[in-house]
Amino acid sequence: MMSNEINIQSVDLEKRKKTEKILSNIFSLPAITEIMQEASRMLDDPTTSTAELARLIGRDQGLSSRILSIANSSLYGLPRKVATIDFALLVIGYKDTKNIVIALSLMEAFKNKNDANLNYKNVWVHSYSVGGAARKLAGDLGFKFSGEAFVAGLLHDFGIPVIHKYLHTSFVNIIDSVNKDGKSFLEAEALHLGLTHQDIGRFLGERWNLPASLCDVLGYHHTPELAVNNLDLVSIVHIADYAVNLIGDNGIIWDKDIKLSPEASERLKLKEADIVTFINDFKVTLDQEIQVVKY
Question: Of 94, 109, 124, which marks where a domain is finished?
């Protein structure tokens, strides 16, 4: 058994079936708002002008602010502030914008009210941080899917807000098991749900017809050695997640016990010293990045 793998014998199959039934009832909900659906359609139309798309996205304040924050990040390295949506679209590019719109729509659709156990601003900051780290790592290693890596990082923990919103009693029980019994979050999830947040993310991703490589990121970002599609991408998001959690407290405790997969490091030909160097380099910009996207 892999070091990060949950012992399947400890999983309550009845709880697993019950959880899957609940998930089957929610995956078909209209997760994408009308504006986001239209934006996605327009991005597929080669005749769409930047001005038309900017006007549409500008109608959704939340979507606009997050796209602007991404365009203003060091991911794109512009020397001056991006103040308009049309300029942001040119900076990010149509292809990456579409993927980001889809990712943001899913994050927004499964957002719940903040409570003592989860603050959604912290979820956004953590997700953005892992996305940024994944994009940088992919670029540093010479991969051509840095945009895909950013989106995968944004969505990697998608299963957590799903548990918080639709399986809230179990969410509270999971927190209790971690705090009182010393279990890891993956162990506690398997105990109370028969599934982990990885399983839930992958389950819903497949039913949303998301790309197979993204579904594997959702399903195996803690256990990249088990992935079957684009193992490089899954390994990059895993290491990005590990790096962000080592850098410091970003308000998300869910990954506090994340362990580095030796298989992921070996696959990317990264030694421990390489990962330490990456963490130190990324730490320099992460604090600035968080201030950009936090408010």
Answer: 109
Dump pLDDT digits (tens) for 65-76: 888 888 888 777
Q: What angle do CA 131, 132, 133 make, to 5 degrees?
A: 95
Separation between Cα atoms, residue 230 and residue 216, nearest integer Å: 8
Judgement on whether residues 42 and 66 belong to the same structural domain of the protein: yes
pTM: 0.86
**Which 8-state DSSP code applies to residue 225?**
G
26, containing H or E segment? helix 13-26
**Model confidence pLDDT, tens digit, residues 66-117:** 888 888 887 777 777 889 999 998 888 888 888 888 888 888 878 888 998 8
The rounded distance, in Å, linking the Cα atoms of 86 and 96 is 14
Both 72 and 142 in one domain: the answer is: no
C-alpha 171/C-alpha 185 separation (Å) is: 10
My answer on whether 60 and 43 are in the same domain is: yes
Which string of b and e fits 163-184 if b means at least 16 CB within 10 Å?
Answer: bbbbbeebbebbbebbeeeebb
